[in-house]
């Protein structure tokens, strides 16, 4: 049994042995919300497709980008010093599931985890709102994707009056502090709001009704939720404006065109992983002259 001195020594070694003290400087990227910017979603075109002329070209580029993510993820996993957290938020039918499939399905599942945050359980409600989130943040070497996230507690909680205003207002500062702590411990954070129009949401909901194979996706509550469109818009604008920071930036991704959405996210992930610059570690063993026996 270790005495207190040895316990403290072990903890210090474990926590600091390969820590990254400061997050990498992220490159200037399209659709990034600069800190201090007041976002107005009605001023951002959800039909924007950037410099991609056709869906065919987007598909070709996405394949290349996924290959780059796979290669960079292998280095990230081997290096075992950093991690990447990708947060996806959107209005209903915004395309979070599709983005996960489109961008990360080709990446080695050993190094990627996806967590979907639904309504909190009874046990989770007995704790602070970040308790269930912190348990799912990425360990070193991992890429973790949040399909919904801690932002639900300043979105749904606000729109549906699940918490008093005095409570959810304080959560913005708590979220910023939480994300800063993650960044200081080697986690790079990317947050994507998938921006679709009200008309596009209607089209997608109608598609689910018209296609029997999509009926499983449809819930009557979707119609009720649609009635909160304006309230959710204000809530998203507030969350993005108040929580887009240098260490945890928000990106507002035009998402009416699913194929462009995936390319825009994949481009950002690739550029970010490149900035993180993970490296294969050197083998500490002397491998000179090693011969594999027959």
Protein architecture, described:
The chain has 294 residues and is α/β, with parallel strands linked by helices. The chain has a single domain (30-276), classed as P-loop containing nucleotide triphosphate hydrolases (Rossmann fold, 3-Layer(aba) Sandwich). The protein has helices at 4-16, 55-79, 96-104, 122-125, 131-134, 156-159, 165-184, 198-210, 221-226, 229-243, 258-276, and strands spanning 83-90, 112-116, 143-147, 187-195, 250-254. Helix 2 (55-79) packs parallel to helix 11 and helix 3 (96-104) packs across helix 11. It is globular, with a radius of gyration of 21 Å. The protein starts with a helix and ends in an 18-residue tail after the last helix.
Can you tag this structure with a few keywords?
Rossmann fold; alpha/beta; 294 residues; 5-stranded parallel β-sheet; single chain
Portion in strands: 5-15%
Q: Could you spell the SSE succession in H and E letters?
A: HHEHEHHEHHEHHHEH
Q: Taking all residues together, what is the mean pLDDT?
A: 92
Which CATH architecture? 3-Layer(aba) Sandwich
Write down the Rg.
21 Å
Query: Which spans of ≥5 residues are poorly predicted at pLDDT below 50?
Result: 10-17
| Structural domain tally | 1
- Helical coverage, percent range: 40-55%
For the record, what is the CATH homologous superfamily label? P-loop containing nucleotide triphosphate hydrolases
In a nutshell, what does this entry contain?
The chain has 294 residues and is of the alpha/beta class. Helices cover 45% and strands 11% of the residues.
């Amino acid at each position: 049994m270790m005495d207190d001195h040895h316990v403290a020594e072990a903890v210090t070694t474990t926590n600091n042995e390969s820590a990254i003290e400061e997050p990498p400087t992220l490159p200037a990227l399209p659709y990034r919300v600069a800190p201090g910017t007041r976002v107005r979603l009605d001023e951002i075109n959800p039909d924007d497709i950037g410099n991609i002329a056709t869906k065919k070209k987007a598909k070709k580029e996405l394949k290349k980008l996924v290959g780059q993510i796979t290669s960079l993820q292998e280095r990230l996993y081997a290096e075992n010093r950093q991690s990447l957290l990708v947060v996806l938020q959107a209005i209903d039918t915004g395309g979070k599931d599709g983005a996960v499939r489109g961008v990360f399905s080709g990446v080695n599942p050993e190094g990627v985890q996806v967590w979907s945050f639904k309504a909190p359980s009874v046990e989770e409600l007995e704790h602070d709102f970040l308790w269930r989130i912190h348990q799912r943040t990425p360990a070193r070497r991992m890429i973790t994707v949040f399909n919904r996230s801690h932002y639900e507690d300043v979105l749904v909680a606000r729109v549906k009056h699940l918490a008093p205003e005095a409570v959810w207002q304080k959560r913005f500062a708590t979220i910023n502090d939480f994300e800063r702590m993650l960044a200081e411990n080697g986690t790079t954070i990317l947050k994507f709001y998938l921006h679709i129009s009200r008309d596009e949401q209607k089209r997608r909901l109608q598609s689910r009704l018209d296609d029997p194979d999509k009926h499983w996706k449809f819930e009557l509550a979707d119609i009720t939720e649609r009635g909160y469109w304006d309230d959710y818009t204000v809530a998203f604008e507030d969350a993005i404006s108040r929580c887009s920071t240098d260490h945890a930036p928000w990106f507002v991704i035009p998402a009416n065109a699913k194929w462009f959405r995936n390319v825009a996210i994949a481009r950002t992930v690739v550029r970010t992983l490149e900035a993180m610059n993970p490296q294969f570690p050197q083998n500490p063993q002397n491998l000179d002259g090693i011969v594999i026996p027959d």
